[in-house]
Specification:
This protein is an alpha/beta fold. Helix content is 39%, strand content 19%. It has eight helices and seven strands, in the order E-H-E-H-E-E-H-E-H-H-E-H-E-H-H. It has helices spanning 15-28, 43-50, 94-97, 111-124, 128-131, 149-159, 174-181, 191-209, and strands spanning 2-6, 33-37, 59-62, 79-83, 102-107, 137-144, 165-170. It has a seven-stranded parallel β-sheet, sandwiched between helices.
Length: 210
């Protein structure tokens, strides 16, 4: 069972977008997938409920009661994606971190958003498994506009950090629409969607190696 934590102390960075699309990808790949929703807004749970009638359904699990979420995991679970609560620091996520294989941190491509994420990443660095490089942490630039100076400057800033940038997801309203439908980019095959799916390939390869 591989477990991925999607976390950021900055609200609106795109945790739910990452968590739901990752969960859908795993489910569509034939893996028994669980989505642990620890965010008070429960957006991931509603997404999973809308998806319940599909063959690639994802099992939603309440992650708000700290360690109780482990008891709810089915024995045949193959992939677990955790949507962490917004604003949480490493200490708040300890009951998740001790069980995960990788941590994905979405970051918006602006100086203010990057600076707001520094404290969270610093708190992660104090976790022994992370400090000793035994637990990989990957950064995902979300809502990127790679043709703009702002996104290029953000990428340059992030490259100087000790955690790798493992993907850049281009800005599109499709994510908002798809979450509302219980769908993901990976449920479709149009040429336009495939271009955005390609943005995820580096992240998926990184997770596979984790």
């Amino acid at each position: 069972m591989k477990t991925i934590l999607v976390a950021s102390s900055k609200g609106g960075a795109g945790k739910t977008t990452l968590a739901t699309n990752l969960a859908a990808h795993f489910a569509l790949d034939g893996k028994r997938t669980v989505l642990v929703d620890a965010d008070p807004q429960q957006s991931s749970t509603r997404w999973a409920e809308r998806r319940a009638g599909l063959e690639s359904a994802v099992l939603p699990l309440d992650g708000s009661r700290k360690r109780a979420w482990r008891a709810g995991l089915p024995d045949d679970a193959e992939r677990v994606v955790i949507d962490a609560p917004a604003g949480a620091m490493a200490d708040d996520l300890e009951h998740f971190i001790e069980h995960v294989d990788a941590i994905v941190v979405p970051v918006l491509p602006s100086a203010l958003d990057i600076e707001a994420t520094v404290g969270f990443l610093n708190s992660l660095s104090k976790i022994p498994r992370i400090h000793k490089r035994r637990l990989p942490v990957g950064l995902v630039i979300n809502r990127s506009k790679p043709w703009t100076n702002t996104s290029q400057q953000a990428l340059d800033m992030l490259k100087s950090w000790p955690y790798p940038v493992v993907a850049q997801l281009r800005d599109t309203q499709a994510y908002v629409v798809l979450v509302g439908l219980g769908r993901s980019l990976f449920d479709y095959r149009s040429a336009q969607v495939r271009e955005h799916q390609a943005d995820w390939e580096p992240l998926l390869k990184w997770i596979k190696k984790a």
